[in-house]
Amino acid sequence: MGIFKVLRSWPVARQIAAGDATALDGTAVSERTAELRARTVAADRAVQSVCPYCAVGCGQKVYVKDGRIMDIEGDEDSPISRGRLCPKGAATFQLVTGDHRVHHCLYRRPGGKDWELIPLEKAMDLVAERVRDTRDRTWEQKDHKRKDVQRTLGIAHLGGATLDDEENYLLKKLYTALGIVQVENQARI
Amino acid sequence: MIVIQGSNMAECHPVGFQWVMEAKERGATVIHVDPRFTRTSAMADVHVPIRAGTDIAFLGGIIRYILENDRCFKEYVVHYTNATHVIGEGFRDTEDLGGLFSGWDPAKRDYETASWQYEGVGGEIPAAGHKETVPSDSQAEVRGSHVTDIERDETLQHPRCVYQILRRHYARYTPELVAEICGTTPDLIVRVAEELCRNSGRERTGAFCYAVGWTQHSVGVQYIRAASIIQLLLGNVGRPGGGILALRGHASIQGSTDIPTLFNLLPGYIPMAHALQADFDAYMKTNTAGAGFWANFPAYFVSLMRAWFDEHANRENDWCFHWLPAVTGDHSHMTTVADMADGKLEGYFVMGENPAAGSMNGALQRKGLQKLKWLVVRDFQLTETAEFWRTSPEVVAGDVDPEDIETEVFFFPAAAHTEKDGTFTNTQRLLQWHHKAVEPPGDCRSDLDFVYKLGKRLKRLYAVSREPKDRPIQALTWDYPTHGPRHEPSAEAVLREINGWRVADGKPLAAYTELKDDGSTVCGCWIYCGCFKDGVNQTARRRPGREQSWVAPEWGWAWPDNRRMLYNRASADPSGRPWSSRKAYVWWDEARRQWSGHDTPDFVKDRPPSYRPRKDQTGVDALSGIDPFIMQADGKGWLFAPDGVLDGPLPTHYEPQESVIENLLYPQQCNPRRLEWNRKDNPYHFAYADPRFPYVVTTYRLTEHHTAGSMTRWLSWLSELMPEMFCEVSPELAAERGLRHGGWATISTARGQIEARVLVTRRLRPLTMRGRTFHQIGLPYHWSYTGRVRGDAANDLIAFVADPNVHIQESKALTANIAPGRLSRRRYAAFRGPPKRPRRVEPPPRDLAGISSAHGRQPRQEEWKKE
């Protein structure tokens, strides 16, 4: 290694050479630092998304590599958030990839003391049957004042407010066609 | 000028708060009014600590200051508000009736609104919202058909004009009395009022920001009404830098109100059918307005029915109106859960929600879940609601045996927002599309996939039925294209239906003004019409903010019609010119004969400012060129609400259901129209001075957690930052009760008990009222019994008691007791009955004598007299 190269690796020497007394002009940057690249550069694609926590609606960029999410960061294009995320928004990566997530349908039978695994399709079939049975059993064509109500008060829904508009639309549409009126969500709370 | 009240914006909406800080750097004054000193207060120019539950008194004090010192924006007030409108002779104010308005019916425990009406119009004038609150099949004609006949006094001197009524109503809200009620000082109230006045007018504007600190009260809607009176008087609505900004708390909570999973609404704020409406004609007559854009209600409704039932809906069968289920009163969350606890329900779908921890009176919620036949929970992990039969405190303590719980529970793992396409509607009405990035793991599915496939199954199950009740499900349009390895329905196809199209050629509609009432248009949500304009998903537009104007109209899509600010006609003066060049936003372009500006004008585009309707004109034609509030029949901002608000035309200070002091303004203690659930499993404290519960409690959020914790308490990163449930108390209260910083405390109400770590801090300070000292306790509500970090749930303390307009609980102001130490066992009224009442102490009344007639009283649906 030549003497000049050794000298150049010394930040003070670079500072003197560049006349950068405060070391704020880049002379303090080491070779290693200069070569560092953000992890996200290796991503196959960045998918634009929206933070799922509060209602500010900060932009997110979801970085995907090999079909897996490798990082989620703020979207600097967003005129709302300009790339920023709060502590919750910055934790979205763990929210969607963390090991807390359950990947299987579970079933608890009446009086049961434990969860049991149940196949998704079977669970869907059972729920559809429960809806039909309860609806048919609790159907109310007229209320006690003999007014037409064509509904069931045997089934209710409570939704969070992180559901998409399209999801809420189909929920309300299906419930209304079934005569289910006790449909509510977080906005009531 | 920005007033933040009922919100801790810096900690709960941190990224939104950057704009407050930017305004401050440019010279704006920031004021924070809140019981606690928070990071928001730290960044504000002024922090005003007030007692939780007294905001209407505080805001009323500001209204009085504006009126008594003649500081309103006169030209704005005269032309754009109903200050000039004369109210009928029969109206009596709370000043005359001890805290009630005229029209109170003790038998119904409700107001008749006939005496609140405008002189000259003959009959009621409809409000823009909440039309469903007045179901009636007896009215002779569409309400608001004669707005052009309203008697007005532009000098504002008529003793019965709204301006003078407002003056009399708030005359006693003096700085001195308001300070007594709020536990603050008169000079702070005057300072805030003066700052607001100084920062309003032609050249300047001010904004209010609020959150659930304003809504979760038994008189919550009137909190926001009080702010709107201030903003209308000061000319701060529809103008840049003005407005009342609701800082909503969830990614699409605005969307779930617009496309409501709510009992009383259909998409686009169209009311559900009510059993009191005898037929289709009565429904249409009740919900159509004689003037303004609600006059086009038939077009909105018919297009929705065409979207849901396609060719089955036609004029001959009243567009399938008779297929819609009818409501008969209150079917809101609390009423439903109370019914559930009484064994009246069989099934419950809970999706991305967690009532066992996140809803009021948690033990009563869990009691309800125990009585179900079946429960479906969809979430990322096993929430408290999914596990109520296994790990709830009452099960762990042995009060309830899981073997006795007959509820069948289905848990479906949910897909994350990164695993599905769809839109969130944020707090500023902006729809933003989020793209699917990866496939969901295992059995995880979107709610869209779940409901679509559940609907498919139910259609199959009912396919062969011949019963009339099954016709709607058979006829329901439910064919959405599917894609991907899991045959998921296309969210974009659903958004296309929400936007709507022309039946003749399938062309997507461009705006709600294209909707027709003859069945020739389809639209799933009229206010979202235009979000798929030109067949392009407008909500997915992402032109970088730095490449467009400060209004950024090409980022996402805002309802309605991509208007970023509502009522923006008011940003120009009556002649159509901006009030000032500094505050220019939308104006009349005389050369092009149309409205123009930085935003889409929220007005009839080619209606000149000089336009005045003829006496006989109705509908949209009845809006004059100086009527910015186009959803109102009279086109004006309502200082006084003749309709649409159930608990009075003007905000009035009532104490919370549970308070520490009597109402210093009126003999009537509480909101007379509040909703109560008088049940053994939901006991209330005394109206005030309950010796068992001497302290005020308010609940709140932290930066690191989200609501009941389902999306945060399972994450190590966030749990590490904020691991443990705690309570905030002042050093004075700590000394009074022997609480040690870092030690344990037990907080109790008649509903339940919780324990928490003690945080002794000057952020909460004792308040002095009537020479006495009162203490407040702050409680975050993020913890419960499952998760990576666990703790007691503040919601176990909260009662079922609600605002009558929106049925939202009072969790921001209640009373409680606090004592040092931990709990060996938690006592819940829902499982072990209410605590004993003290003997020899007569509870003070909540209501004036005679407010409900003993024999004639009709129990409201939400009431069960069990005691």
Number of strands of chain B: 33
Helix content of chain B: 10-25%
Strand sequence of the main sheet of chain A, in spatial order?
Answer: 1-2-3
- In which order are the strands of the major sheet of chain B placed? 26-28-27-33-25-31
Assembly type of the chains comes to heterodimer
Morphology call of chain A: elongated
Helix content of chain A: 25-40%
> Structural class from helices and strands of chain B?
alpha/beta
Radius of gyration of chain B: 27 Å
Largest interface: A-B, 115 and 157 residues
Overall structural domain count of chain A: 3
**Overall average residue pLDDT of chain B:** 95
Describe the largest sheet of chain B.
6 strands, mixed
Percent of residues in beta strands of chain A: 15-25%
Distinct helical segment count of chain A: 7
Number of helices of chain B: 23
Summarize the structure.
The complex is a heterodimer of chains A (189) and B (867). Helices cover 32% and strands 25% of the residues of chain A. By secondary structure, chain A is an alpha+beta fold.
Explain what the structure shows:
- The complex is a heterodimer of chains A (189) and B (867).
- With 189 residues, chain A is an alpha+beta fold.
- Chain A folds into 3 domains: 3-35, no CATH class; 39-97, Single Sheet (N-terminal domain of TfIIb); 138-189, no CATH class.
- Helices cover 32% and strands 25% of the residues of chain A.
- In chain A, strand 6 (139-142) and strand 7 form a beta hairpin.
- The model of chain A has no long low-confidence stretch (mean pLDDT 94).
- By secondary structure, chain B is α/β, with parallel strands linked by helices.
- Chain B is globular.
- Chain B contains 23 helices and 33 strands.
- Chain B is 21% helix and 14% strand.
- A 6-stranded mixed beta sheet of chain B has the order 26-28-27-33-25-31. In chain B, strands 3-2-1-6-7 form a 5-stranded parallel beta sheet. In chain B, strands 12-13-14 form a 3-stranded parallel beta sheet, with no helix packed on it.
- Chains A and B meet through strand 1, strand 2, strand 3, helix 4 and helix 5 of A and helix 2, helix 11, strand 11, helix 14 and strand 12 of B.
